[in-house]
Amino acid sequence: MQITIPKDYDPVLSVRETQEAIKYIRDTFQKELGRELSLSRISAPLFVERSSGLNDDLNGSEEPVSFTMKEMSNEPIEVVHSLAKWKRMALKKYGFHVNEGLYTNMNAIRKDEELDNLHSAYVDQWDWEKVIDVSQRNVQTLKKHVEQIFKVIKHMEHEVWYKYPQAVNRLPETIHFVTSQQLLDIYPDLSPRERENAITKELGCVFVMKIGQRLSNGEKHDGRAPDYDDWELNGDILFWYEPLQQALEISSMGIRVDENSLHEQLEIEGCLERETLPFHQAILNRELPYTIGGGIGQSRLCMLLLKKAHIGEVQASLWPQEMIEICEENNIHLL
C-alpha cells in the first residue's frame, strides 16, 4: 500500500457536494464526447466467456475475477479487465460504418492492482471505439482523435468552473506529442515513470506514443497486450497533477491491430496460439472493421477536474483499513 498526502490538503467540496459534482461531470462529459467523436451510446457486458478471447490481458500478469454460471457450468466466465476487444466485435454486430463509433460505461474489477492515490481495484471508464478506413491507420488520425478528446476535457474545465469555481482545477491550454523512444533519449537516466513525470511537469499535458514495443535500451516503456493496440499507433494522455506531484494518466488509446500487426505482436510476445481464438481469427481473416478506440477514466477525470487527492474521494471502492485511517486523519474522505 502506498499513499501520498498533499500538505494542508483541503477537499473544498463536502462529500455531498462532491457526489453532485461527480454526477454532473459524468453526465456532461459523455454527451460531449459522443458529439465530438460521432459516437453512439450502447450497453456493454460486465463479464465474458474465457474461451472467446475477448478479455483484456493488460500486462499479461493480472488474473481476472472468474466464476461459473449455473446454466453454463462447463464454461469459465471472467469479469472484464476492459472492453478493448469486445467493442470491435460490437461495431460489426451493430452495423457501424466508417467514421461512426460507440461509447459505453465500462466497469471492471482488477484484484491484482497495487492500491494508491490513483489506483483502485474498481475501474470505471468510458470505453469508446470508432470505425476507420484502412487508409486512416496512421499517426495523423491518432493525433486528431487525441486532440478532440483534449478539447472535450478542456471544455469540461470551463463547465465545472461555472458550477464549482472554488474547486475547479486549471488545466494547460495545449497537449504535446512525444514518443516513448524520444522520452528515453531525453531522460536516459530516468525510469519510465520518472520520464513521464518529468515531461508532464515541463509541458503540462502530453500524449506519449508508441507504447508496448522495446526501446533502444532493450526495455519497454510500459506493457501492452499484443492483440488490441498497434504498438506503433497508440499512446497515453497524461496531465501534470500538482496535488500529487506526478503525472496523471487520463486515457489509454490507439489504432487497433490489423491482420499484419496482430501476427507480428503475438509472435514477439510468444503467444501465437491466440490466433486460434474467435476474435483473433476474425481479425486475421479481415472480418472485423479497422478501428481506433480507447478508455477514459471516469474517476480519474473527476479527480483531475476537482483537484482531489485520492481516487477514493470520487468513487466507492474497498481500501485497506490503514489507508482509510491515514486519509481521514488528513482530511481525505473516501466514499
UniProtKB/TrEMBL annotation:
Catalytic activity: L-aspartate + NH4(+) + ATP = L-asparagine + AMP + diphosphate + H(+)
EC number assigned by the record: 6.3.1.1
InterPro entries in the cross-refs: aa-tRNA-synth_II (IPR006195), aa-tRNA-synth_II/BPL/LPL (IPR045864), AsnA (IPR004618)
Residue ranges constituting the Aminoacyl-transfer RNA synthetases class-II family profile domain according to the UniProt record: 23-320
Keyword annotations: Amino-acid biosynthesis, Asparagine biosynthesis, ATP-binding, Cytoplasm, Ligase, Nucleotide-binding
Pathway(s) per entry: Amino-acid biosynthesis; L-asparagine biosynthesis; L-asparagine from L-aspartate (ammonia route): step 1/1
Domain of life, source organism: Bacteria
Primary subcellular site in the record, as a coarse category: cytoplasm
Keyword Cytoplasm belongs to the record: yes
One GO cellular component term noted in the UniProt record for this chain: cytosol
Coiled coil: none
A Pfam family recorded for this sequence: AsnA
NCBIfam families per UniProt: asnA
PANTHER family (UniProt xref): ASPARTATE--AMMONIA LIGASE
Protein family (similarity comment): Belongs to the class-II aminoacyl-tRNA synthetase family. AsnA subfamily.
Protein name listed in UniProt: Aspartate--ammonia ligase
Organism: Dubosiella newyorkensis
Classification lineage: Bacteria, Bacillati, Bacillota, Erysipelotrichia, Erysipelotrichales
